[in-house]
Design goal:
The protein is α+β, with helices and mostly antiparallel strands and 275 residues long. The chain folds into two domains: 3-125, lpxc deacetylase, domain 1 (Ribosomal Protein S5, domain 2, 2-Layer Sandwich); 129-272, lpxc deacetylase, domain 1 (2-Layer Sandwich). It contains six helices and 18 strands. The strands form five sheets. Strands 11, 12, 13, 14, 15 and 18 form a six-stranded mixed β-sheet that branches. Helix 1 packs across helix 2 (108-117) and helix 1 (77-86) packs across helix 5.
Length: 275
């Protein structure tokens, strides 16, 4: 048994939102036992709260969005990913708009900020999300499976028709050290031909070569951090989306071409399964 954990002190982040393109600030604060992860919209007068759990997911187009009524917060997966691996059970996340800052398109910045804040051990035991049976979410082309396992492991296969990318596979037993070195620095990705269409849809308005890896038919426009950076970022996203189970997860997750929709459906299925 492990005790619940919150942050030892509050921390602050600022930047622009990846999709909104608007200035964004986030304050992450300690919270009492059994609070979970709760987002708070500080730009609204009644400061509405949205708990980061799978049943509050409303949209998964290019990002994970949680909502309460007509109040939403989107692109939460990178921050949730860092919180998940750092082992934070309880915190408040105050956001001054609909989207946290993207920083440099990964979760390394958030993870470093959390490490700077430090951990505070609380007085109640953690309710771990332990996978004790097989779960599978499948749409005929893509799937994600959860299997019992005594650690937190993710095996991901990414299939991309572009010859520059092709098939990428990565498999990690996720620990704080592995995450900081091999997963957290992996950035989000975009195909140059898609960018205008995305922006016409109101997406990617805060994207730049500072926070997105962009490729075209000739090659990579910016320098990669890893040869397989795409699949590592996919794993980063899975870790964030699985935090929507409501706790720190233990199990082996095997995915092929999975994205936010399947990831969050799996998180919801696990919650309904009583793990």
């Amino acid at each position: 048994m492990h005790y619940q954990i919150t942050l030892a002190r509050e921390v602050f982040c600022e930047g622009v939102g990846l999709h909104s393109g608007k200035p964004a600030t986030v304050k992450i604060l300690p919270a009492p036992e059994n609070t979970g992860i709760v987002f708070i919209r500080t730009d609204l007068t009644d400061r509405p709260r949205i708990e980061a759990v799978a049943e509050n997911v409303t949209t998964t187009l290019r990002a994970t969005t949680i909502s309460k009524g007509n109040i939403r917060i989107f692109t939460i997966e990178h921050l949730l990913s860092a919180l998940h691996v750092y082992g934070v059970d309880n915190c408040y996340i105050e956001v001054n708009g609909e989207e946290p800052p993207v920083q440099d398109g990964c979760s390394a910045y958030f993870f470093a900020v959390l490490q700077k804040a430090g951990k505070k051990i609380q007085n109640k035991f953690r309710k771990e999300v332990v996978i004790d049976k097989i779960y599978r979410i499948d749409d005929g082309e893509r799937f994600i499976i959860a299997l019992p396992y005594d650690k937190f492991r993710i095996s991901f296969t990414s299939l991309n028709e572009h010859p520059l990318i092709g098939t990428q596979y990565a498999d990690f037993i996720v620990t704080e050290d592995v995450y900081a070195k091999d997963i957290a620095p992996a950035r989000t990705i975009a195909y140059e031909k898609e960018i205008k269409h995305l922006q016409d849809m109101g997406l990617g308005l805060g994207g730049s070569l500072e926070n997105v890896i962009v490729y075209n038919d000739a090659g990579w426009i910016n320098k990669l951090r890893f040869n397989d950076e795409l699949v590592r970022h996919k794993i980063l996203d899975v870790i964030g989306d699985l935090r929507l189970t409501g706790g720190i997860v233990k199990g082996h997750f095997i995915a092929v071409k999975s994205g936010h929709q399947l990831n969050t459906e799996l998180a919801k299925e696990i919650r309904q399964g009583g793990c």
